[in-house]
């Protein structure tokens, strides 16, 4: 007999209660955006800041994000990238199926693996996959891809309400927070449950702007979900990527806000919002 899903959730942080939390995902070695995000969240009086994983990939100098996470007391979960780095796997486990997406994923992963210290890989291996907190009257479950798979893509256009209801029921949650797709979205169901894909701060979300996004959740009479834009020194990041010999397509995305890679994983509706 299988155990109830709520019982197999890997929770290492104690369940804590909050009134306001900030949540982001997909750091992708973008230390500049990470620093700006933490500062913004504290300025908005977030009582706790959470990262839903994928510290590395895409950007330069991956070891620069770890001191910021620790100094900022960011409560972090393990994403697929973190799991691969920690276990010495040969690929990022991103879940791509298209050859072009996998080509750039291999370049990104090889660079990140070579430039992440053994100490930081070990730390990534120590992170939990899930975390539960209480936000006002809501039970919140955080994960990377979905509660059932670390690299599942929950896109707004292809995630039906029936699937969400099943996830809420099977995992005993009122609110599920996830990332992995790199594009934020929020849906409230008639029963009062909320699915929030918090997006990513490591790269823009294919909207023609270099800004990145995180989510601010506040427990009031009703749950308030706000997506907060963050501007940072993206020109410096792009120059660092060039200097490290990363693909010019990566720096172009940072400079323009349009995705040039990982495009084939996008559903038709999300891809139609971009340039390529």
Widest sheet: strand ordering: 1-5-6-7-9-8
CA-based gyration radius: 17 Å
Largest sheet: 6 strands, mixed
Query: First CA to last CA: what distance?
Result: 48 Å
Strand content: 15-25%
How much is the average pLDDT? 93
In terms of per-residue confidence, which ranges show pLDDT below 50 for 5 or more consecutive residues? 1-11
Which percent bin holds the helix content?
A: 25-40%
Number of strands: 11
Shape: globular
Q: Which structural class is indicated by helix and strand composition?
A: alpha/beta
Enumerate how many helices there are, as a single number: 10
**Which series of helices and strands comes N to C?**
HEEHEHEHHHEEHEEEEEHHH
Describe this structure in words.
The chain has 276 residues and is of the alpha/beta class. Helix content is 33%, strand content 18%. The chain has a six-stranded mixed sheet with strand order 1-5-6-7-9-8, covered by helices on one side. Helix 4 crosses helix 6 and helix 8 runs antiparallel to helix 9. It is globular.
Offer a few descriptive terms.
11 strands, globular, alpha/beta, 276 residues, six-stranded mixed β-sheet
In short:
This protein has ten helices and eleven strands. The protein has a six-stranded mixed β-sheet, with helices on one face. A five-stranded mixed β-sheet has the order 4-3-2-10-11.
């Amino acid at each position: 007999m299988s155990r109830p899903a709520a019982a197999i959730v890997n929770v290492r942080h104690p369940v804590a209660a909050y009134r306001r939390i900030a949540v982001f995902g997909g750091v992708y070695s973008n230390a500049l955006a990470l620093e700006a995000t933490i500062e913004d969240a504290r300025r908005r009086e977030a009582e706790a800041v959470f990262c839903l994983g994928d510290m590395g990939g895409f950007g330069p100098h991956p070891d620069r994000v770890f001191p910021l996470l620790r100094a900022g007391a960011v409560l972090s979960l393990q994403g697929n990238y973190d799991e691969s780095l920690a276990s010495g796997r040969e690929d990022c486990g991103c879940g791509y199926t298209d050859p072009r997406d996998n080509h750039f994923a291999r370049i990104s992963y090889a660079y990140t693996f070579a430039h992440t210290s053994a100490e930081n890989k070990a730390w990534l291996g120590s992170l939990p996959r899930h975390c539960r907190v209480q936000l006002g009257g809501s039970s919140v479950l955080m994960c990377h891809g979905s509660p059932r798979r670390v690299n599942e893509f929950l896109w707004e256009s292809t995630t039906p309400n029936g699937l969400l209801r099943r996830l809420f029921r099977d995992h005993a949650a009122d609110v599920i927070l996830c990332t992995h797709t790199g594009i934020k979205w929020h849906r409230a169901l008639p029963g009062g449950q909320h699915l929030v894909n918090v997006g990513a701060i490591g790269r823009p979300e294919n909207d023609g702007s270099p800004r990145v996004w995180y989510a601010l959740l506040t427990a009031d009479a009703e749950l308030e979900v706000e997506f907060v834009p963050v501007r940072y020194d993206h020109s410096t990041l792009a120059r660092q990527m060039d200097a490290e010999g990363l693909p010019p397509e990566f720096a172009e995305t940072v400079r323009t806000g349009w995705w040039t890679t990982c495009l084939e994983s996008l559903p038709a509706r999300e891809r139609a919002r971009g340039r390529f």
